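@here heads up, posting the sequence + SMILES for the zinc ion run so it's all in one place. Ping me if the SMILES looks off, I pulled it from an old spreadsheet.
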Amino acid sequence: MSTLYKGISSLALTGESFGDVLVVENAALAVADGKVLYAGPASKAPACDQEIDLGGRSVIPGFVDSHAHLIFAGERSEEFASRITGKPYAAGGIRTTVRATRAASDEELRANAEKLIAEFYASGITQFEIKSGYGLDVETELRSLKIAAEHTQHTTFLGAHVVPEGVQRADYIKSVTGEMLQAVRPYAKWIDVFCDQGAFSVEETKQILEAGIAAGLKPRLHANQIANLGVIPLAVELNCASVDHATHLTAEDIAVLSGSNTVVTLLPGAEFSTKSPYPDARRLASAGITLAIATDCNPGSSYTTSMPFCIAVAVREMGLTPEQALWAATRGGAKALRTEGGSLEVGASADFVVLDAPSHVFLSYRPGVQLVSQTYIAGRRVFERQ
Ligand SMILES: [Zn+2]
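bot reply: prediction finished. Complex structure tokens:
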């Protein structure tokens, strides 16, 4: 069964290199067996079994969210309200969510994650990562990753989020690199560490990532959000798929990242919600660094599931062009997960988003407006705006 989507005012096609977006006007998209059969000018589209007229809407690849913390319980609106009046963000707020998460049942954690995933679909996200990191004991980290693995292949063990209350630092690191790692290993693809002031040092990060790699996990990092502890050379040396946040970087860090295999993932929702300085994405882009944009959805520092919001902030506050931001939120996210996706090349999974707008530029031009009309994964509609 093949379907031709026609009446597309503009179709954004993402290329291999950062920021490479080709916009085709008066376009069509053909899908067969869940894969892209054709994406290009309507005049050259193949005949299909059925046709759907999108009435002048635009089409973009589905967003790939490479950084999301969806397994937790509770919320921290009071902390947000106090912070917004001037109190700076401290990593310790994570411990509030840890208490709620440990107390929650699997059913509660699963229901909360599924509610957020439904929001992801409504925001045009078609592939996403899920991290643990609010259990911080063997039992709850394991429960978290089991639930994560029910919903995505991109699962990340973030036992090294912070040191939990009531545990000695050395004992906790011993568990994260030993018993906890061995328990979660069957359910985790990635290992992540929050390497920052108030979280883990560069030495500890090295120890934890190396233990994860030895256990067959692939490394990625939260780093340089609050301060620059000097972890960037290590991240590149260990072949981290991505360094996320990266607000504070030296010229030397930028030189090391440029030309490396490590993506820098921007998390605009985090700086927005914590009133923190934004990374200079334009500077990173000029240095030839591959950028991704992710939601960082979590109840403390970035409680958003909206990729269009993150794109709008990246364009307005970080200096990306609308094309660079679109690329970063699609193909960039896929590169940060070292997976396929974020592209409508022939043969790719038909993951795409229909926007109630004439082009992708409207994502940042009309901030805060729900422009996602329909979301498709492998040719199947998972969201339609009523
Ligand atoms: Zn995060």
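MO: The chain has a mean pLDDT of 96.
MO: One more: Residues 67, 69, 222, 296, 298 surround zinc ion (CB under 6 Å).
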